[in-house]
Amino acid sequence: MQLNYRFLFFLFFSAAIVFFLIVKTIDFSLKKYTRHNDIIHVPSLIGLNLNKTEDTLQKLDLQYVILDSAAYNPNYDRGSILSHQPKANSQVKPGRKIYLTINPITVNYIPLPYLKNKSLRQAISLLENHAFRVGDLHYVDYYAKDVVRFAKVNQKKVNSNDSLPKFTIVDLYMGNGHDKNIVVPNLVGLEYHEIKRKLNYNSLNLGSCVFANNITDTAIAIIYKQDPEANNRSEAGSYINIWLKDSLN
What we know:
Blueprint lengths: L4 H30 L5 E2 L8 H10 L3 E7 L11 E5 L5 E2 L4 E6 L6 E3 L8 H10 L3 E8 L7 E6 L2 E3 L4 E3 L3 E7 L5 E3 L8 H10 L3 E7 L10 E6 L5 E3 L3 E7 L4
Parallel strand pairs: 2-5, 7-11, 13-16
Antiparallel strand pairs: 1-4, 3-5, 6-10, 8-9, 8-11, 12-15, 14-16
C-alpha cells in the first residue's frame, strides 16, 4: 500500500500547530495566573497617615504590614509613615506586602541614662533597657577605645537626665584609642535583625540595605553580600552596606 505523503505532511503539520497552540495557551494562562507581566512601582508613603496609606496601596493591589514604631520624629504627624520597605519606586508584583514604620501615636518622655565613660556594650545595654535606640557610632580622638565621650540626638548634644521621647535614636561619640583600623566582620548568612548589634560591637555602622523583591519577611531576611567584604580593614565608624534575600539557596 502506497503511503500518502501529502496526507502525512498535513497530519504532522496540524499536530505541530495544535501543540504550539496548547503550549501558548498554557504559557498565557500561567502568566495570567502569576500576573507575570504586571509590575507596580511602589509609591512614596512617607508622611501619609494610615488611612491614606491603606487607600493608596489598595488601589495598587498592594498589602501592608506595620513593622514597627520608630523613634518619635517631631517633623511628622503622630501615626504617619516614616519609612517603608520596599522603598519608593521599587518594582514589585501585585499582592506584595509593604512593611511600614510609623511615627509613634503616644509619646512618653523618659530621662536619658548616664553614658559618659561607659564602654560601648554598657552604653548600648543602658540605652536599650531605657527604651532608647542606638543610632550611629562616631569616633573622636581619645586614648580609651570604645568609651563614650558624649551623645547627640538630631546632631545636638544631650546629657544624662535630659527628658527625651521614648524610642529616641541616640548617636554615640566614642574614643578611638588612636586606632583607626577595624577588621570588617563576615556578615553573610546572618539575619537582618542581628546585623546592627554585630556591626556596633565591631565599632562599625549599618549602611544601606538592599532587599530582594521577593522577600516575605524583612526581619529574618538573610545577608548574601556585603561591602566592604569581610576581613578588609576600615575606619572605626565606617558604614557597611548589605544585600539581603529570603535564603542563601
